[in-house]
Specification:
2 copies of one chain form a homodimer. The first copy, chain A, is of the alpha+beta class. Helices cover 32% and strands 27% of the residues of chain A. In chain A, strands 10, 11, 12, 13, 14, 15, 16, 17 and 18 form a 9-stranded antiparallel beta sheet that branches. Chain A has a 5-stranded parallel beta sheet with strand order 3-2-1-4-5, sandwiched between helices. The first copy, chain A, has a 4-stranded antiparallel beta sheet with strand order 6-9-7-8, sandwiched between helices. Chains A and B meet through helix 1, helix 11 and strand 17 of A and helix 1, helix 11 and strand 17 of B.
Chain lengths: 392, 392
């Protein structure tokens, strides 16, 4: 009997780059994955042999893909929690489970939970009308409670028109609308932890993230010049949230670093994600154990690997499609990028360049942060075609 | 059109663990692989979706699997060179090419080439009879020129019976027999280099290897207490061999470290391998660029990645099946091994434990060599079942 029949099989729902990058540690661990892909040939479907194509919103499809699997995990947070409860009744345990996952699906549920836990967060309220928003105060941030990602479903509301648009979108999609105070933050941080069903948890160093239009552009690990007490506090907060919400797998707690009037820095919870997260891609080349491996280990309730960094600095820069849809293939970026920087680590997702689309990322590491930043930014711009590599 | 149709596709012949471990950097590079596996479900076939099953000795099979691929590379060195010439005529280039590869296939051809290059090597002769061996001198090492691996096809000949057995085997299999002086070596070393068709090459640190019964057991990178001049000389030798023989991809030069009567250390070429090699598995966790990634980069004629080490010491220990065929599944080794050592890096090949079979390896890295050795040896013994993990 081949070994694959004797190791637990993990079902992964969703065929994006996060599932694709789970495949690498799964190969090392000797653990077979079974993929539910949205369509043939998507990112993860290119690299995971045992796959089915179907709709994750359909319970029969989920039952078919998880048959013979002991656990199921996710490339995204959109699987209906009622289906996860049905799978659990069949004996297939989801990591994260439905009780935890709902906090990553619904921002109102998340805000309520943060309040219950006493976690620091922006002032917020559920708003159902223009009058509610006016009472809350403008300017503010408006977010649909469900369905937003990468800047979608989020409005920086300054005018009545902004408010009307957000309210209309919420009504059309049948979700609640959330108002949040506009935090005057110094920068964004991310506290990433892994937690196993046993309760064991591991906290990665807190990183600084640069977001543009709601999309992660750069990550620096660890966050430069971060107050050590604030860093430790952010890790403790993420571990406490993971524990209290019963998260299994990776939890990313996206934070604002704000500075009080007296100069004291503090963190506020911005968003939660319960899956390997863009702010943790640096761990592939910068930590002893990557977030993808620890996500799988947690799903299997295996002891977690060390989250400690392997270099003084690791920088991640996303490769996003630029404005020119005809820049050609990403592969054309290799000869220059690799020759210029023999230490560059490249991760491409098997996707074509399209404007605004995340198609890969690069990692650099070393003792000199400015050097790491320059190398990573140059490489990402080159792959994107901004520096002329696709000019032939 | 999906990106996979726009990147060069690499055909990999042979479905063992080396092909399996090529799949990890192929995912990161966004380069699709197409596998020719010996049978369904073998090690690499578990993790590479685009696969065919067939016989690598059959040209029609090779033509089918390489269709639409720009290059072809190998999990092993057994593909007939005449087939590679036929594929080249079709426009599919092999890395390494047939002119280089023959030196890894035929030990007599290799010895002749080393003599031509002036590379230091043990005294050797082709022997066709017992009288030839007697003239060469006993004791000696006898090797079949082709077909040997992991200690098979090698005799430490001390008696006429040993000689008779070796001669009979060579005659039965229709290959030449090679006699080599029994080198009184201090230890075995390996000099691993990557070389691209452009001529660019990268040399990994020279490592010390412990072989038992012709099978690699342990690797320490870099080789402890190695004379720096000898180390540099071994790297230069490996680079020169790669260049002179036109090797593309990874070349492992296995060396004896001998000590002359006056105490001067020197190296002698023992074997050549032209593929990712067991003595390079440490690079997965211990070098900036793994041998598997550089093998793929070389096959694509992309600039090579840095071979520099990421830790003071990296230790690799193979997991070999023990004497008890009923030790159960490797997976059972995880809870203890991972809990005991959060920094342990495990690589399993998707194979069942069978006596003497290589089923995986572990890597450890750090500043303390003794600690790295202890951790890696303990983990490998545990997975093997020698320490009682399979007693339930």
């Amino acid at each position: 009997m081949p070994a694959t029949e004797r190791s637990p099989r993990i079902a992964v729902i969703g065929g994006g780059q996060l599932a694709r990058m789970m495949a690498q540690p799964a190969i090392a661990l000797g653990v077979p994955l079974r993929l539910l892909a949205e369509a043939e040939g998507v990112s993860a479907a290119q690299v995971i042999p045992d796959q089915q194509v179907g709709d994750y919103r359909d319970l029969a499809t989920l039952r078919a893909v998880t048959e013979g699997c002991s656990v199921v995990t996710f490339d995204h947070e959109h699987v209906p929690t009622e289906h996860l409860r049905a799978l659990a009744a069949d004996g297939v345990v989801a990591h994260p489970g439905p009780e935890a996952l709902v906090h990553a699906q619904d921002k109102v549920v998340m805000r309520e939970a943060m309040a219950r836990l006493g976690a620091p967060q922006p002032r917020w309220a559920v708003v159902g009308s223009a009058a509610d928003v006016e009472a809350f105060g403008l300017p503010c941030v408006l977010k649909t409670s469900r369905g937003g990602y990468d800047g979608k479903g989020v409005w920086f509301a300054r005018t009545a028109d902004d408010v009307a648009e957000a309210l209309a979108t919420a009504e059309q999609t049948g979700v609640r609308l959330l108002a949040e105070e506009l935090v005057d933050f110094r920068r964004e941080l991310s506290a990433l932890v892994a937690r196993a069903p046993s309760g064991q948890a591991a906290a990665y160093p807190v990183v600084a993230t640069l977001q543009v239009d709601g999309i992660c552009r750069e990550v620096v690990a660890p966050a430069p010049d971060l107050d050590p007490e604030l860093a430790a506090g952010a890790q403790e907060l993420a571990l406490r949230i993971a524990g209290e919400l019963g998260v299994t797998g990776i939890l990313a707690v996206e934070l604002f670093e704000a500075v009080d009037a007296d100069g004291t820095p503090r963190v506020l919870v911005n968003e939660l994600a319960m899956r390997p997260h863009n702010t943790g891609h640096w761990t592939q080349d910068g930590a002893v154990t990557s977030q993808f491996e620890n996500h799988l280990r947690a799903a299997l309730d295996l002891p977690l690997g060390s989250p400690e960094p392997r270099a003084r600095w690791t920088v991640m820069v996303n490769i996003l499609g630029g404005d020119n849809p005809d820049v050609g293939r990403l592969y054309d970026g290799y000869p220059h990028a690799l020759a210029r920087d023999p230490r560059l680590r490249v991760h491409l997702y098997g996707k074509d360049l399209r404007p605004g689309r995340k198609v890969g990322h690069v990692n650099t590491f070393g003792d000199d942060l400015e050097d790491c930043l320059e190398r990573a930014r140059h490489a990402a711009a080159w792959f994107r075609g901004d520096l002329g590599n696709h000019s032939e």
